[in-house]
Fold this protein.
Amino acid sequence: DTEVTQTPKHLVMGMTNKKSLKCEQHMGHRAMYWYKQKAKKPPELMFVYSYEKLSINESVPSRFSPECPNSSLLNLHLHALQPEDSALYLCASSQAGLSYEQYFGPGTRLTVT
Amino acid sequence: ELKVEQNPLFLSMQEGKNYTIYCNYSTTSDRLYWYRQDPGKSLESLFVLLSNGAVKQEGRLMASLDTKARLSTLHITAAVHDLSATYFCAVVPLNYGGSQGNLIFGKGTKLSVKP
């Protein structure tokens, strides 16, 4: 299995809602990532988990809260988002360590109203 | 400042023509990635270039890496409409202080192949 899955594919939420994005992989990868991609821009790294521990947080606002319950799952909890947070959220996974190839999921298209 | 620069950012080609996309990066890195992204879709890995002088080919695309010049190229041969997409290069800086690589992307090259 060489696939990273993400749910939901699309999400529309109001600014007062709480929702979660989910990501799963069964490739035995021990590093997982969240990226945010705005239209016509490259992906921007948000968080990195290595061996289920948060290793990188790229100064992301606290309204985004990541969680890695086990080595196969990665969640992104959303609360009190702003319209400018609307974007494609991509999850990726890789072998742990520098420079291993990252495999991307299909993404969740988030719209904040 | 860490930079990954692609050019051109927009490329309109006719079918059957050849062209090259360039990716320059400002930091020390021993590997470089090329990804393809179709509109509204995720990133598809095209090439992983692991060492200086590496050259890889898949169909009409060929990628190369010169780590001394900090330059990678993606060459398109006899373009077809199906190659229309946005192409990103990305590097992981070797001197990054974290325990896990931070993939730094170029801005992307939007390729449009017209009949």
Notes: Chain A touches chain B through 28 residues (CB under 8 Å). The two ends of chain A are 36 Å apart (CA to CA).
